[in-house]
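Exercise 7.
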Amino acid sequence: MIYITEKEKQTPVKGSCDVVVAGGGVAGIAAALAAARNGAGVKLIEKQCLLGGLATLGIITIYLPLCDGMGNQIIFGIGEELLKLSIKYGYETRYPEAWLNNGSIEEKKKKRYEVQYNPQLFAIAAEQLLLSEGVELIYDTLITGVNVDNNRITEVIVDNKEGHYAISTNAVVDCTGDADICEFAGENTAAYQENRFAAWYYYSHKNGYKLQPIATTPIFGPLTERTYDGLLSDDINRLLIRGHKVILEDVLKKRVEQEDESIMPVTIPVVPPVRMTRRLSGVYTLDESEEGTEFEDSIGKTGDWRKKGPVHDLPYGILYGNKIANLSVAGRCVSVTTDMWDITRVIPACAVTGEAAGAAAALTAKKGIGFKDLDIDKLQNVLGLNARK
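Solution. The predicted structure, written as tokens, is:
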């Protein structure tokens, strides 16, 4: 391999804030909301030009259940707020009538608390909500590094059309989905290299439009041997190109089968459809086998979207590591085992961990302390957990 030496350069510092939220997916939206509502000045930095991540730009437009499948709601707070926000301007399918209109427990057992939303409307509604809470949105901007001093991130380094510059901050929440900030800062991480093919898209037909999930998973289709490493550029390119080809083939096939030449793709994914890449190796690593375990440092609960019954308590220790004092994570970056990752990577769990990480960031930034030094009882009070005991 050939190397070059880049010229040394001084990086200007443009602005500061209490909390930087890196990534504007569901976890980032929840984190920014929670941090702002707890008095922090927040900058949310998103490399795309729309919020939502895989939930909007990846066309994964099913807000999975806030319940355990047995008629019991287990996710509240911002997790529930965002579900309602996703259908503020209309829903597509799976409207949770019983849950939103005080239905009986028997009705709630029959239909889980989930909904299919329109991705563009959800993204815009989330943007309006964040702006109303005073969050500064910085779109089309890539975080390319961090400055670490005495085990604290003092600045995040960004690149955009304006140039290369730094933003000073007191706390950072890594909601990149790939633990990019953890990697930049030298925090401990673990990688997952086996993503299976997926290419969800919307298509129009003579009677309207429809979501078409295409995936090689036990739910949507047969498993294949080919997997993709979401941290390798070549694999990402192969996955994207294959997805485009499969979508075209599926559209042409539908035209023949449905005898409808008006069928057209309306929206296709514009971000790589990889679910799991890299995560924090934190103070605590949660495993699926710990179903039903209650943690003293709980920051919320999540169910298992794949089946009815299981409930997992989420400990605070999955949100921060041992090296960087003022760095926390949320969403797909949290510290869990591979089996548990498949549960915590989805929208409801991302909202739960995002809210907790954002609230913790605001509380620690105010006091100038690290995440490990935060009074967990105070965080639980802010999250409303003690009131629900």
